[in-house]
Amino acid sequence: QVQLQESGPGLVKPSQTFSLTCTVSGGSITTSAYYWSWIRQPPGKGLEWMGVVAYSGSTYYSPSLKSRTSISRDTSKNQFTLQLSSVTPEDTAVYYCARGIVYYEYWGQGTQVTVSS
Questions:
Q1: Can you point out the beta strands (E) in 1-117?
Q2: What pLDDT is attached to residue 102?
Q3: What sign has the CA pseudo-torsion 91, 92, 94, 95?
Q4: How many CB atoms lie within 10 A of CB 98?
Q5: Which of 14, 31, 64, 90 has the most crowded Cβ, counting Cβ within 10 A?
Q6: What does the alpha-carbon distance between residue 29 and residue 52 come to, in Å, rounded to a whole number?
Q7: What is residue 85's predicted lDDT score, i.e. its pLDDT?
Q8: How far apart are CA 27 and CA 113, in angstroms?
Q9: Taking the CB of residue 28, how many other CB atoms lie within 10 A of it?
Q10: How far apart are CA 29 and CA 8, in angstroms?
Q11: How many angstroms separate the CA atoms of 111 and 10, rounded?
Q12: Rounded to an integer, what distance in angstroms lies between the CA atom of residue 74 and that of residue 94?
C-alpha cells in the first residue's frame, strides 16, 4: 500500500518562499512510469494541479505557476519537495501530494498553508 505524507510550514508571510515535502512509503518514487504531483485547493475553489516530478526526475509545471514553482526529489529518502516563491494570500490553500498526473491513485492527507502577515 502506497502512502504519502506532506510536511511543511503552516503559516508563511507574503513575499516569502516555502517548501513542502512529500514522504512516500510502500513504493519507490523512481519506479518506472510513475509520476508524483503537487495539487492544491484554495478555500472555496477547486483543485489546481501545480506540477509533477517523473520517475526519471523530469519535472513539468503548470504554466500559470511555472515562474514561482520548483519541484525536486531526494531518492535516498524517497521524498519529493515543492518550493513556491513570492507567495501572496492567494496561495493560501490545502496542498496535496499524489501519485499520478491526470488520474491520481494515491493522495496524501493534505496540509494547510496560510499566507498572512
A1: 3-7, 11-12, 18-25, 35-41, 48-54, 59-61, 69-74, 79-84, 93-100, 104-107, 111-115
A2: 87
A3: positive
A4: 22
A5: 14
A6: 12
A7: 98
A8: 26
A9: 13
A10: 19
A11: 8
A12: 23
Contacts for 71-78: CB closer than 8 Å, 24+ residues apart:
71/38, 73/29, 73/36, 75/28, 75/29, 75/30, 77/23, 78/23, 78/24, 78/25, 78/28, 78/29
C-alpha cell at 73: 526529489
Specify the DSSP class assigned to residue 54.
Answer: E
Residue carrying C-alpha cell 472555496: 44
Q: For residue 15, how many other CB atoms are within 10 A of its CB? A: 11
Measured CA to CA, the distance from residue 101 to residue 51 in angstroms comes to 9
Question: Mean pLDDT per 10-residue run, the chain (117 residues)?
Answer: 95 97 96 96 97 97 97 97 98 98 95 97
Q: What is the C-alpha separation between 4 and 78, in angstroms, rounded?
A: 10
